[in-house]
Amino acid sequence: MANQSKRKGRKTISQRAFYDEVPLAEEKKEQQLDVLFDTFMKSKELEGLRERTLKDHSTHFRYFVSFLNNAYPSVKLGIDITTEMVRDYIYYMTKEKMLWDDHTSSAYKHIEKKGLSPVTVNVRLRTLKCFFKFLFDENYIRINPTARIKLLKTKEDTIPSFSETQVQDLLKQPDQRSYAGFRDYVLMVTFIDTGIRCKEILGIEKKHFDEIQKTITIPAHLAKNGKERIVPLSQKTAKLIKILINESRAFEDPADNIFLSNFGEKLDASGVRERIKGYGDKSDISDVRVSPHTFRHTFAKFYILNGGDPFTLQRILGHSSMNMVRKYIQMNGEDIKSQHHQYSPIQHLMES
After folding, report:
1. Which runs of consecutive H residues, i.e. helices, occur in the chain?
2. Which residue of 44, 251, 278, 295 is surrounded by the most CB atoms within 10 Å?
3. Do the domain assignments include residue 259?
4. Are 170 and 283 in contact (CB under 8 A)?
5. Which residues form the Core-binding (CB) domain (predicted)?
């Protein structure tokens, strides 16, 4: 009764008023898009995002602003961006954008080609969605213009790898009588033995190599996922790396890296890609892209074909999900037939 007397005559509420929007402060309403992006980038730096990821955010934002300057020149403020503008940007990327017009040195080769691939469009969309979600969450804008934007559908990726014969042909190409040739040989052997990324292998130093345990430690700052991992080596690869390190002592003041240029300096990734592509040309390999990353796919495929388990492969490759591992294992018809013949239940039942 006491509780009832306290409530007697008080106003009750049965319906919500739906006060969803938090009013924006005037200074937030007037902030230009580039100023908001600077705020966003500072936040991401504090979160510890890798330099490559931060660079991607900046590059993709620049592409979006370039589109706005042409299609919506009067739009400057963050609150002015609408979902319709984002959809127009997607249409422009998929249907109208000239291929490579952001890279003048290559644009002339693709002067008649228009439209980016769905994969490329999605890469740019993801960073844009991340940016506007931040603005919405931090109450810089009332509505997130990318909230209802979905990524484009993409075809199932099929990334070919080298055959055993192609790997053998590639390894025959470097002239091992020279330092550069021997270094390239060891580099390709390490690629195929570990599936290590190009940036990782060029960044590792002598201290990361354990001759006794036959491992290479990939430090966090080199790993794509920002996590340190240990990559095992075969006895042959470990021996070759040790010989290469000994060879580098001939340099007057070599860098700490394992793989060095003829001047004892850290190798450049673009130069390595060009040299490996050159070995592919000498091997007459035309049906597969000859690159460090193809070695990574080849390692993953043969690791599984030779009986390795996918969970260990995931750890070696440094992937956070099995879905990423699956993308690296692309088997052709002959691979599948060989595996079926080896592991078919009926094959073993009939033999027993």
Report:
1. 2-7, 26-29, 33-46, 51-71, 83-91, 104-107, 118-137, 164-172, 179-194, 198-203, 235-247, 269-282, 292-305, 310-317, 322-328, 333-343, 345-351
2. 295
3. yes
4. yes
5. 31-136
Phi, psi of 231 (to 5 degrees): -110, 120
CB 202 within 8 A of CB 227: no
List all residues 6 or more positions away from 124 whose beta carbon is below 8 Å from its beta carbon: 60, 63, 64, 93, 116
Residue 150 to residue 152: CA distance in whole angstroms: 6
Residues 34 and 111 in one domain: yes
How many domains, the chain? 2
Q: From residue 56, how far is each of 36, 87, 92, 166, 228 by CA, in Å? A: 17, 21, 20, 34, 22
What whole-number distance in Å separates Cα of residue 182 and Cα of residue 240? 9
Burial 124-150 (b: 16+ CB within 10 A, else e): bbebbbebbebbbeeebbeebbbeebe
Identify the CATH number of the domain in which residue 286 sits. Answer: 1.10.443.10
Three-state DSSP state, 135: helix
Residue 207 and residue 116 in one domain: no
What pLDDT, on a 0 to 100 scale, did the predictor assign at position 327?
Answer: 63
* H/E run at residue 217: strand 215-218
For residue 259, the number of C-alpha atoms closer than 13 Å in the C-beta half-sphere is: 25
Domain that holds residue 55: 26-137
Question: Do 193 and 77 reside in the same domain of the chain?
Answer: no
Element at 99 (helix H, strand E): none
Task: Single out the residue in 119, 137, 155 at which a domain terminates.
Answer: 137
Packed helices 33-46 and 118-137: angle between N→C axes, nearest 10 degrees: 90
* CA pair distance 247, 241, nearest whole angstrom: 10
pLDDT mean by block of 10 residues, the chain; 352 residues: 60 57 67 94 91 91 96 93 96 83 49 78 95 93 93 74 92 95 96 91 95 93 86 93 93 92 92 94 92 89 79 77 62 53 53 56
Give the pLDDT of residue 306: 78
133 and 51 fall within a common domain: yes
pLDDT at 35: 94
Residue 340 backbone phi and psi in degrees, to 5: -65, -45
